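Students often ask why we bother encoding 3D structure as a string. The short answer is that it lets us treat folding as translation between two languages. Here is a chain of 564 residues written in the first language.
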Amino acid sequence: MSGARTRVGELREAVLAAADELLGRRACDRGGEITLERPRRPDFGDYSTNAALLLAGELGRAPREVAERLGERLAERLGESVERCEVAGPGFLNLFLSDAWHLDSLRALVGAGTEHGAGGAQAPERVLIEFVSANPTGPMHVGHARNAAYGDALARLLAFHGHHVVREFYVNDAGSQIGKLGESIAAVARGEELPEDGYRGEYVGELAAALPGASSRGGAELGREAVAMMVDHMERILTRFGVSFEHWAYESAMHAGDPSPVEHTLAMLEQRGRSYRAEGAVWLRTTEGGDDKDRVLVRSNGEYTYFASDIAYHQDKRERGFERQIDVWGADHHGYIERMRAAYAALGGDPAELELLIMQLVHLVRRGKRVQMSKREGQFVTLEQLLDEIGVDAARWYLVARSHDTTIDLDLDLAVERSSENPVYYVQYAHARIVGILAKAGEARVQAALAETAAGAAGAAGASEAEWKARREQGLHESERALIKRLLDFPGEVEEAARRRAPHRMAAFALQTAQEFTAFYRDCRVVGAEPAQVESRRIALSVAARRTIASALELLGVSAPLQM
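And here it is in the second language, the structure alphabet:
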């Protein structure tokens, strides 16, 4: 665990230890309730804790009195790290930390390098994230694009946090839809009217032109060839989008073998007494798991339902040894959640291991108005068209920058604007600006500044402990202090984003960090600052900011350009 990660953790442990002293016993049972947070206003200190409010009842004292006593204990524990403690409001304790603490934190940031914020998972898991899984009978549209951007960002985030993550795409290449696609292609190739329930859109004509002998064929065989072409195209466009998968699973494979995965899974359900026969069909007792009604697994004509295939697929994932399954589904799957959880439990799985995340819709906005899309008529904006118009970085940013469970309006005009109003441009420009500042300083000067900062009390180039102490006493500008604290927030933000499955927090953090750096650079000269020790620490702080912004962008799948 990096030193930068533990800096705020050390403060929290000091607060808990001081609370233990006041109680005369461990306050660990309140560990989850006692908070240490950054106040919104700097005049309320660097960090604030509610510990006194929680301890007052047990101590039989007024919260403000407890806060005073807690502050005295903390001052003793933290020594030169704290300038003062102030009681505020009904009993909050605000901590004002010294420049020495901030500079030691900067040293920890430099020492952590590009690993700052990484590997914080307390109990790493084997996680399978299944996302996108666009129907292969049509091109991927902007809704699929959001699933792709979110699923990939979540995979990056969980892996960075320390989990072993596998990305998977599930191809729905079974059922009557494949034959319908083949018939649609054949009809277009022959110049005939499409079947009433056929597939429409330019892509159908393109498939008809690309598939040999399409006019004299049709049905499932032609449909399967078309699906293979569609999957190949999906893989190419997703690669362009920065999304790749370790494994592609196929629904057709769920029906192959003797016994097939579907047969194997249905036999398990029968043995466990979780399925039954009625009206000539086989049903699953999903009502036992909270579903509103039992669901059909095998129709009266002997055909398996899609639900049966889906259950078999999730059992297959269980048998591959994943401790956690995360499915990223479209907005139209909301009613599918309870039945899938019930099926998972019926197989003996712990429903807590199965996370079903529902994505909300994406609306494209141009010149202040939503772009109309009609999938029924084959008129929709594809992922490829979106990338052609606004590029990979803007698309990924805007599709992930809001929580997955909220509808988003993607402003196509703003997405390509090169101004501070465009958040992805603003963050990328901040990164490029830092690169330019460091280039101006020169590689040798940057490396010397990093070595000097990382050396700490031992000093660089023979500096004594007294000299290092003197450097620490050269007052920090408030913008330096603010930027250091922002960078120290990164491990906690990563942990929270991973826990909440919320990669959009990384977009917010990247933007806030870029804004903090802009304020720092406005207020503090970097290259050429005097004395030389001040220049060194500001160069080192710039390096730490660049690394952290780059890490946050990488978690979003957005590039960190060297120049703009």
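Translate back mentally: The first strand starts at residue 36 and ends at 37. Keep this in mind for the problem set.
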